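so my prof wants the structure for this chain in the tokens format not the other one, which i didnt know existed until like an hour ago. anyway here's the sequence
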Amino acid sequence: MTIAVKILNDQIKKISETNTLLDMLLEFEKTLDGLDLYAFKNWDEGEILEGPTLGRHHLTVKLMYPHAKMPDPDGAKRLMARDCLVEYAKDTLIKPKRVRSFDDLIIEVKPDGIPSYKAKTTTENVWVVEVKMPRRYVDEFNIDKVKQDEDSYVDMEDAGTNAEMETADLGMNNGSVETPGELV
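here's what i got, hopefully its the right format
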């Protein structure tokens, strides 16, 4: 499969239009950061090629890397230890050449006689890394967080009673109970 720059632009537009995909992508990146994946060589050089694609059990994201900057396979081992599926593939990226002169253009004449100008293209070898991450890492609802919140439950009745007792103790120590408007 050959990758065109238009595919990359369409993917960026798709993610930008929906907050849900952007939130999932941020959770995906947060998980990679939490696993210290960026400590491995070239893992921070990737660009999103495709995704996030949400499946029943996995979130799939394809990352693209320049051929000379292949991400370290030890980082993939760290992901696989967390039940992620990681696949490496070689591919070709087709991108337009920077136009500096007429030599960088392809001139086509349409049937009605109007010339059409297109930039010449260059090809570049790239690595495509597909990461299938279990949804438990990227879903906003986390059962561990809910359990922790239940353990930190504060009984408001007890808190009110303790505050009243402290106020009563302060009043008895002075020998009189002051009201907010009185000066001693």
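also thought this was worth mentioning. The first helix runs from residue 5 to 17.
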